[in-house]
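Morning!

This is the sequence you dropped in the shared folder:
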Amino acid sequence: MVCEAIIKGDVVRKVLKTNVNTLVELNMLKNLTGSAMAGALGGFNAHASNIVSAIYIATGQDPAQNVESSHCITMMEPLNGGEDLHVSVTMPSIEVLHIDPILVVYAL
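The structure's back. Tokens below.
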């Protein structure tokens, strides 16, 4: 799964109280370099496992499955000459609940 967004420079400045270049540098230093130096396996991100666990709990799935499902990389890059921010999050292995209708019939 890949999610992406373009955040306008005005929103970055007014709501997030920072600028595009600072966020791009922060992502590179914290999420990419910092995770690599820490020996992170499967994730160069800002705590995707917390979000995945919350969704699993809210939807009745097993939160222990967040280990495999939290593999993720967060990327940021400036757009329009550094005015706007492009953010993408790639999560290649999200596990979701699947109920086999045949098994449900047998359980009844």
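Headline: The first strand starts at residue 2 and ends at 7.

More detail when I'm at my desk.
O.
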